[in-house]
Amino acid sequence: MKRLGMVYICFLLLFLPIQNHVYSKELKLNVDSLELQVQDIMMLQLTDPVSDAVKKYYAKSLKKVPVVYPYEMSVLHIERMDGFRSFRFKVVLDVVPVIGPHISVGRDRVTLLVTAGETKVISFEHIETFELPPKWAQFKKEE
Fold first, then answer.
1. What sign does the CA torsion over 100, 133, 48, 39 have?
2. Which of 90, 129, 134, 139 lies at a 20 to 30 A Cα distance from 33?
3. Is 95 in contact with 71 (CB distance < 8 Å)?
4. pTM, rounded to two decimals
5. pLDDT given for residue 141 in this prediction
6. What is residue 21's three-state secondary structure?
7. Rounded-to-5 percentages of helix, strand, coil across the chain
8. What are the Cα distances from residue 114, in Å, to 2, 36, 47, 121?
């Protein structure tokens, strides 16, 4: 009788649906939010210094100046340089410059120092060069 009871309990445990009580927050990627607006404003403000650094680097390898769009930059790291609630930041971005109809020419890491009234590039690291399509190879400088 005990054996039959144990078989019955094992049967119930195996075949009863097990509920998972893990809940995830619903992502609303197509809804504007204050955080998204602040990030977009920040990217707009950082576009000019990043574009200048990209222009300087790619001038030696391309005849056409690549463009950097705010949506082609992503934040890798932000650090407050002087501790909590200070207003001096080191921002590290991953950037993908493009030419023509959004043809990616490479991937770069740009580090900026952002302070009140000034944003300057403190380092530029070229990570990867992308091969241009044959139709756009004419914009590559001869080495």
1. positive
2. 90
3. no
4. 0.75
5. 86
6. coil
7. 35, 30, 35
8. 73, 19, 13, 9
What 132-137 contacts at long range (C-beta under 8 Å, 24+ apart), as own/partner pairs, is 132/99, 132/103, 132/105, 133/103, 136/99, 136/100, 136/103
What are the average pLDDT values for consecutive 10-residue runs of the chain, which has 143 residues? 66 58 58 89 95 96 95 95 94 96 96 95 97 92 77
Rounded Cα gap, residues 97 and 4, in angstroms: 70
Q: For residues 92 and 77, give the distance between their C-alpha atoms in angstroms, rounded to a whole number.
A: 5
Query: How far is 143 from 123, CA to CA, in rounded Å?
Result: 25
- Give the Cβ contact number of residue 135 at 10 Å: 9
Half-sphere exposure of 100 (CA within 13 A, CB side): 13
- pLDDT digits 0-9 by tens, 53-63: 999 999 999 99
Nearest-angstrom CA–CA distance, 27 and 33: 12
Across-strand partners of 118? 115
pLDDT at 26: 60
Say which residues have a Cβ less than 8 Å from residue 97's Cβ, sequence separation at least 6: 54, 58, 66, 67, 68, 72, 104, 105, 106, 108
